[in-house]
């Protein structure tokens, strides 16, 4: 369920249907792929946001567990995504790493995966270490695929950037993405700001209220700021004792009334809150807490919420999609001709057990 102060839709239909609307050349579209908490449930995947720009570029900020099922429901060719960004290494923000990697490969990606993430105070806490260990852990998976799938799909370009600085970490085709430190439990997490064509989108990742966020998000068009459910909801609905609820809801994350202070200082054209369970009974309580300190435009996010942004309007609505999608094959030209590596070979005793022996891997010429 989504609440928004926006009342006009202009020429936009009530719902967004993937692949039916051409994005304007000066327009940005944001789709919530995951808005929930670390406890995964069917109605809300873990954190993930898709940003589409009128110049054709697409980016994904975070890719927590379950988010890739929502991405594929939009029927976007994986090769269209320019880069994937992680704000930090909690599983509810990077848990779908293997699915991004292998799923996009099997789904037709014909170029290396470009993945960005922050360093840490020690090498073992950085994105490069995480990504390389993921590759190592899945070596059986990928080594057994390169004989049948294009070998280039196994490649990942890992871009680790300094978590402790406010600096531009991506600058191509008129798109500038800035990383700045987030205050979240331990050194390493960041927030991200995307600027393009006079429009600005800022995504908090996980953070408690901080001056870093206010300084870097002030005046943005759309700001997505995290907030966990209220302390009372965490105690009543999750069964947490008060000490645990306060530690999670205010020390590790932002309480809604705390996030509201930041939003009031930032004063965006549209504020969006996420990272809470958005139910019919919890949402009004969450909104009331936010309204204690912030009276501006507000959207309560849930999965498949769509935001269209131009310099004139900001429109919020929901996507409609199929649960039975296949890979978008519009960009699969060259898939069959792409280089493969030698097929892995079974041991002789396993070959002897096969009912229909294959003497060689047959590829049509």
Quick take:
This protein has helices spanning 67-73, 91-94, 97-106, 127-137, 139-143, 211-217, 231-238, 242-252, 256-266, 283-290, 348-352, and strands at residues 15-16, 28-34, 48-53, 58-61, 81-85, 113-118, 156-161, 167-172, 175-181, 190-196, 199-203, 222-226, 270-274, 298-300, 305-309, 314-319.
Characterise the protein shown here.
The structure is a single chain. With 365 residues, the protein is of the alpha/beta class. It has a single domain, classed as 4-Layer Sandwich (Metallo-beta-lactamase, Chain A). 24% of the residues lie in helices and 23% in strands. The chain contains eleven helices and 16 strands. It has helices at 67-73, 91-94, 97-106, 127-137, 139-143, 211-217, 231-238, 242-252, 256-266, 283-290, 348-352, and strands at residues 15-16, 28-34, 48-53, 58-61, 81-85, 113-118, 156-161, 167-172, 175-181, 190-196, 199-203, 222-226, 270-274, 298-300, 305-309, 314-319. The strands form two sheets. A nine-stranded mixed sheet has the order 1-16-15-2-3-4-5-6-7. It has a seven-stranded mixed sheet with strand order 8-9-10-11-12-13-14. The longest helix has 11 residues, at 127-137. The protein is globular and about 70 Å long.
């Amino acid at each position: 369920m989504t609440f928004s102060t926006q009342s006009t839709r202009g020429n936009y239909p009530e719902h967004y249907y993937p692949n039916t609307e051409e994005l304007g050349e000066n327009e940005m579209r944001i789709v919530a792929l995951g808005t929930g908490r670390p406890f995964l449930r069917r109605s809300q995947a873990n954190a993930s946001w898709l940003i589409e720009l009128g110049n054709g570029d697409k980016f994904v900020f975070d890719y927590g567990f379950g988010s890739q099922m929502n991405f594929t429901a939009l029927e976007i060719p994986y090769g269209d995504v320019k880069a994937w960004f992680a704000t930090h290494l909690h599983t509810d923000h990077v848990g779908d790493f293997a699915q991004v990697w292998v799923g996009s490969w099997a789904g037709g990606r014909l170029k290396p995966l470009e993945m960005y993430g922050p360093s840490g105070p020690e090498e073992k806490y950085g994105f490069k270490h995480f990504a390389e260990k993921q590759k190592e852990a899945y070596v059986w998976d990928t080594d057994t695929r390169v004989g049948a799938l294009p070998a280039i799909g196994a490649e990942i370009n890992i871009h680790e950037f300094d978590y402790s600085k406010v600096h531009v970490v991506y600058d191509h085709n008129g798109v500038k993405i800035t990383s700045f430190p987030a205050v979240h439990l331990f050194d390493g997490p960041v927030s991200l700001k995307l600027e393009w064509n006079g429009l600005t989108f800022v995504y908090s990742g996980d953070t408690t209220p901080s001056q870093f966020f206010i300084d870097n998000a002030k005046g943005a068009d759309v700001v997505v700021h995290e907030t966990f459910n209220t302390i009372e909801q965490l105690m009543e609905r999750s069964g947490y004792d008060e000490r645990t609820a306060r530690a999670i809801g205010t020390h590790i994350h932002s309480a809604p009334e705390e996030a509201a202070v930041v939003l009031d200082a930032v004063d965006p054209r549209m504020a969006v809150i996420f990272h809470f369970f958005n139910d019919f009974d919890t949402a009004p309580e969450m909104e009331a807490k936010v309204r204690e300190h912030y009276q501006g435009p507000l959207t309560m996010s849930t999965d498949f919420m769509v935001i269209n942004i131009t310099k004139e309007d900001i429109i919020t609505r929901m996507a409609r999609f199929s649960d039975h999608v296949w890979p978008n094959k519009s960009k699969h030209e060259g898939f069959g001709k792409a280089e493969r590596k030698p097929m892995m070979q079974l041991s002789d005793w396993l070959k002897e057990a096969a009912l229909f022996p294959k003497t060689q891997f047959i590829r049509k010429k």
